[in-house]
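Notes, p. 3: input format for complexes.
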Amino acid sequence: MFCHVLSAVISGVDALPVMVEADVSDGMPQFTIVGFVSSQVREAQDRVRTAVRNLGVSLPPRRITINLAPGDLRKDGSRFDLPIAAAVLQALGVIPEDAFRDTLVAGELHLDGSTERITGVLPTVLMAREKGCRACLLPVGNVREGRVIEGIRVVGIRSLEELTAYGRGLFTEEDNLSENGDRSKDSLPAVYSVDFADIHGQEAAKRAALIAAAGFHNLLLSGPPGSGKSMAARRIPTILPELTQEESLEISRIYSIVGMLPEEEPLMRHRPFRAPHHTVTPAALCGAGLHPRPGEITLAHRGVLFLDELPEMRGNLDFLREPLEERKITISRAGGTCTFPASFLLVAAMNPCPCGYYPDRRRCSCTLREIKNYQARVSQALLDRIDLRCEMQPAEYDDLTAGGQSNMTSAWMREHVIRAGQLQKDRYAGTGILFNSELSAADIHRYCDTSPEAGRLLRASFRSLGLSARGYHHVLKVSRTIADLEGAEKICETHVSEALCFRCGELELPDSGTGKSLRLHEGQQEHKGRMTSGRRKIWEGEKP
Ligand SMILES: [Zn+2]
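Output follows (544 residues plus zinc ion):
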């Protein structure tokens, strides 16, 4: 007798339908699973056989063949235990033949017949709804996650016994935890345990973080150890706008696939913050495997990817160019080609020299060559894609002893980020552009209108600082964001000058060869001083 049950396999960030077919026929007694399956799927036969026996059903000494269709799609994971058991029980006549019509079944089995949580439930239930299924049968531990998707019934199954009862129409929803399942749909605001108010001093870094968050500009923080680089980076998700329902679902899907979604919180409310160690391999960053799995850059989607100790990172990180520009990554492996979303805010941090204390010559005795070599380890291609560079100074005694909280709280900063975000949304409506950082050279001419004074400063800086075309565009994009933060239509001189300040990092590298490095444009020097004192005044006067 032949029976089939619908299930699904995860491919990339999507679920694809898989038909689990079972046939019981005369012949040599055996249990075989075919259909381009991994050894993990093949192990299901022992679990299913034992679980069915423990249900009190004896498998007849006949030939049982399981086929997972389509045959050209590789199946991986332990999620096929439950549909295989369901199809076998149907083929044996224990469960009526049409019991699982319009129903998707997925789950892992223990030997005693109890079910175990699986990963990738969100995309699975979404796919089932798209296919017009009425219900999804899932392990009870996955029910909360499954019920996030509206418009389809999600039934939690504790054991193979309950699956049989469901098939026979004897299973009532009361047996199940139907309550609280929808709790996750309430949109509670995200609460972060950290806040920018915890950081005393470091006003320039906070300002850089604010600009980075407002225009989604990538940011490089450089400074001595202990100056608070990772402290600042860790707080950037707290000033990004709240996740929308779609964004939350989008991120939750990714975390569902890698099994990182907590059972009690099936929808992600926080923007992700990923900080892989500097020994991370390129494969772990980008995603890998025979059956590609999302990597760190995809886990940081819609959030922050923090790369600390940038010069110590393995490999040259040139492979990050594609995701930084396309905001997605495509991985080709024997198991197939997958595209993962990867729209993240890159925050990188580095020490200025091998010991970390340059330019404090009392502590740093690194030679210029050592410093140059150290900084040259950072891929130029990656640096080219970082709009904002901020040098952090060692913490000042007065800042540390000031006590209380800083004026710049995350809530106050987020308010400004949201306001600037709204301006960008209105300006780029219908163009597909979301943030200033995404502007192309042609867009820059269109949207970055500068005042005559700003134009003059740009011309002077271009020559005196030796900016490249790309550097020039970065300055304009950052100026646009600074103007948006102030609600200004036109880019003024002060905006450009502040943007140039956040560009200086690269120009202040010690360079014995060309001699151009340490020379800042005179006007800009003056601006830098004025900006710093001016910024302090603004921030100290303005209460959040
Ligand atoms: Zn040093």
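The pocket of zinc ion is lined by residues 353-355, 357-358, 364, 366 (CB under 6 Å).
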